[in-house]
Amino acid sequence: MPVVHIVTVVPISVTVGANRIVPAVAIPHPLGNPKMSQEEEKLMRREMVVKSLETLTTDISEQTVF
Asked: Among 24, 18, 16, which residue's Cα sits nearest to residue 44?
């Protein structure tokens, strides 16, 4: 089953062998940014989810950080 890791510390995912890695925003707010307005944050989250879904359809042969 294809899986995407949305992570704040990419080297950990690389070490454990994750194949598809999408960097997140920050450790305390992986999918958010309290400095943004609600509208901006919602757009950012949507973009991250769309990017993550796109990685599921991307053929890869080794660990890849998107």
From this structure: 24
Domain count, the chain: 1
Write down the residue that tokens 């950080």 correspond to: 65
Model pLDDT for residues 6-36, shown as the tens digit of each residue: 999 999 999 999 999 999 999 999 998 989 9
Question: Which structural domain, as residue segments, surrounds residue 14?
Answer: 4-65
CA 11 to chain centre: 13
Q: How far apart are CA 7 and CA 5, in angstroms?
A: 6
The predicted model scores a pTM of 0.83
What does the DSSP assignment read for 2-40?
--EEEES-HHHHHHHT-SEEEE-SBTTBTT--TTS-HHH
Measure the CA–CA gap between 49 and 7, rounded to whole angstroms: 12
